[in-house]
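Hi team, as promised in this morning's meeting, here are the two structures we talked about. I've kept the exact order from the run log so nobody has to guess. The first one is mostly here for context; it's the second one we should focus on when we meet again. Sequence first, then the predicted structure tokens.
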Amino acid sequence: MKKDTKTMETAAERGSAARKRVIIWGAGQAGAMMLQWLPHDCEMLCYVDSSKRKQGTQCMGYPVVSIKEALDLAPEEVYIAVLNKEAESELIRQLRDDGFAGAVVPAGWFRDRQDLRLAALRLYAEEIKRRHVPGALAELGVYQGAFAAEINRVLPARKLYLFDTFAGFDADDLAIEEKTADGGRIPVVGAGRQADFSDTDENCVRNSLPHPQQAVFVKGRFPESLEQMPSICEMHFALVSLDPDLYAPTKSGLAFFYPRMSPGGAILIHDYNSMQFPGVGRAVREFCSASGTFVLPLPDLHGTALLLKSER
């Protein structure tokens, strides 16, 4: 019996020793998600980041070091967790200049070929149709309408309610974000992106929809914008996309939509595991703790999660 145990331990040790030694360059949102993508035969050594501010810290429980320190660990494979093509090319060039001859796996390659959030939407739309889940569709946080267009395409027979300021982040929501972010001790990363989300309008979104006749636009700050159509409070929903990026509208969105979800309905929550917009995850965790519900995190680059309405 002892001999068998020893044999098993030796095999386990051999299996561990045979694992591929890898590092991830990029201790940010993409790097955190790429860690979840690593195959079972990979041994994660550390994160690399060019920012000296991050070096000496930890990301996802692993040390963040310089590229020289990482290469001293003799990795066999490097995952590049940046999404800017020029930056990606520069990091690969630096790796080769520093003498690394192993395999390089860029995050951009995956992003250009797969979208796990879209895949989840498409699969769940089929479940909604197969199980005849009743209700309308909605998205809170529409921006230019790329995701709304896919919702509209996969469930074309349903009304789609689109909630957005169509003018970027609301100033009051940004102020709340500052107050709730770690007790007000850290800045809001997303606040600097306000201009990025203001370059849209209703016509831009409408023109992106394959079935625009099904769309109902509700413009303004949520939840005050609900006052424009009181009848929506009596509706039920089969699928809702929450993508407002900030704490306050995420919290309000969950409070409004979840009680109105049909049994079997789903809420897709963008940025649940986002490092850039941590207020979203905070709002979701508070809601789940208070309501006794649970989310299923998805391993997409932006940290989407799925919340199901199961009770009848």
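And here is the second protein, the one for discussion:
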Amino acid sequence: MYCKFVILIFMLFINCTPKSTNYVAINSNTMKNKNTETAIFAGGCFWCTEAVYNQLHGILKLEPGYIGGQVLNPTYEQVCSGTTGHAEAVRITFDPDKITYNELLEVFFTTHDPTTLNRQGADEGTQYRSEIFYLDELQKKQAERFIVWLDRARIYPKPVVTKISAATTYYVAEEYHKNYYENNPDQGYCRMVIAPKIEKVKKFYTDKLK
């Protein structure tokens, strides 16, 4: 799995030369006995994140929303102002027998730039930060190990700035944000920003597609 991950990142960041690929994943399935698990990722605009994970098998539910801020029940307009402290995120309910948390992390780190602070492309502000919100200590350790591996192997030309934080209150976004790409495929942002991410997933993760 990680060999393919290195090749993909190399193609995205041609100046990077991995030094090591000895990342050791923790298998959450051996430590949990659940039919479903939940992950929360913030990797820029939640339209992008939702569309990416919507391509994968084992994904049971996707909820764009806001997390990590101080304002109660924030609106999209408030979050976009950058004054609430929230990140745009997606809460993912998944079947761990079909896709693991480690695999979700792999897709997360290959479909956004985790080296730019509070920015993804033209989207700039703390609401677009790269952050993993863990729901238990196992997820925390998995995320920490993944980032350590990325930096030690020098997968990216710059250090990973993705934060790892305990999950706080999650506010589900307004209804019109759900399935935004599917409902607005011809919108400019969808064609120029989201569509290339989806094509990347389809090309490099064929074994994980629905």
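Starting points for discussion:
The beta strands are 37-43, 59-67, 87-94, 119-120, 123-124, 130-134, 163-166, 171-172.
The first strand starts at residue 37 and ends at 43.
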